[in-house]
Structure formats: C-alpha cells, structure tokens
C-alpha cells in the first residue's frame, strides 16, 4: 500500500467509526423519545380520565344545586 492509500484507509475507517457512533447515539435518542412519548400518552390518558370524572362531579353538583334552588323557590313563595 502506498502512503496515500494508507491515509485514505485510515480516514475512511475514522469516518466509519464516527458514523457508527452517531448512529448509536441516534438510536439511543430515538428510543428515549419513544419512551417519553409513551409516558406522555399514559399521563394524558390519566389526565383525561381525571377531567372526565371532575366534569361528572361538576354536572352532578350543578343538578343538585338546581334542585335545591327549586325547593327553596317553592318554599319562598
């Protein structure tokens, strides 16, 4: 091998190593992103459930209040 071929081979091997490192970092970051997305989705489902429950409670309290207002209104007259 000539000196130029050795230098080119070394440069290629270095680029290949850098590419493999970057690819591994990308895969790691991608897996982390997927994990975070899944966690966020679970938290979002939980929050949606909580909001639904609170909405039902508010509706129930609204109905109770309306009934009490009707009863009070009947007694006042």
Automatic annotation (TrEMBL):
Write out the coiled-coil annotation as residue ranges.
Answer: 44-71
Which keywords does UniProt give here? Coiled coil, Plasmid
> Record's superkingdom?
Bacteria
Q: What is this protein called?
A: Putative mobilization protein mobD
Organism equals Vibrio harveyi (Beneckea harveyi)
